[in-house]
Specification:
Alpha/beta knot; 7 strands; seven-stranded parallel β-sheet
Length: 232
């Protein structure tokens, strides 16, 4: 058993059996094959509602671009979902949007902008064979020109009324419902690998246990002592 698994087993002893079982059930439905990007969202309740949808649909990573607007989680809306997600923020670069796009492309993601465009697909027809990053822009202006220039594709949600667009949190929920259903009924290997599961499980346990830092410190002291005894 490697050290990460030993740590997970140790920390699990400080959480309820029901909580640990829930973690194992949920983690099997977590994915990084689809990820969400929020660009400069200035209404925190909208972004927080997106986090809640991401957790509900099993999306593990959310990338947050902070150009003009700094995002703070609204816990009344997010309902604690942020502690089960990996939030990756881009705020200290000369061009935060481009930094995010380049980072995702290096990791093999196809950048898909959620915006009406002459070359767009409707969400039901979007090809998700490759890892896909869905980018959502600001509530009023949508995605930036930077995203438009560097996107690999565009997608829209069919609408049949007078209003031009959905609220961003509604858009994200509709897109995720469609794409996650499609993902789960495909032959794509979309689940986290064993190492990713260990990393995520460790973070979940840390976020669930009071003073987990001290408990973890005790684990490493004990583990180090055991190794010395074995060496002797």
């Amino acid at each position: 058993m490697n050290d990460n698994k030993k740590l997970i087993e140790y920390l699990s002893g400080f959480a309820s059996e029901e909580r640990v079982k829930k973690f194992h059930d949920v983690i099997n439905n977590r994915t990084r094959h689809i990820t969400i990007v929020l660009e400069d969202i200035y209404q925190p309740h909208n972004a927080s509602a997106v986090l809640r949808s991401c957790d509900c649909f099993g999306i593990q990573d959310v990338h947050i671009i902070e150009n003009k607007n700094q995002y703070t989680v609204n816990q009344d809306i997010a309902l604690g979902s942020s502690k089960w997600l990996n939030l990756i923020k881009y705020k200290n670069h000369p061009n935060n949007t481009l930094a995010c796009i380049n980072d995702l492309k290096k990791k093999g993601y196809r950048i898909v902008a959620t915006s009406p465009h002459k070359e767009d697909n409707i969400i039901q027809e979007l090809d998700i064979t490759s890892k896909t990053a869905l980018v959502f822009g600001t509530e009023l202006k949508g995605i930036s020109d930077e995203v438009m220039q560097h996107a690999d594709g565009f997608v829209k949600i069919p609408m049949y009324g007078f209003t031009e667009s959905f609220n961003i949190s509604v858009s994200a929920a509709l897109c995720l419902h469609t794409l996650v259903h499609k993902l789960h009924h495909s032959d794509i290997h979309w689940q986290l690998d064993d190492q990713e599961k260990e990393q995520v499980m460790t973070e979940w346990l840390r976020n669930s246990i009071n003073r987990s830092d001290l408990i973890e410190e005790e684990f490493y002291k004990s583990n180090s002592g055991n190794r010395k005894e074995q060496g002797d």
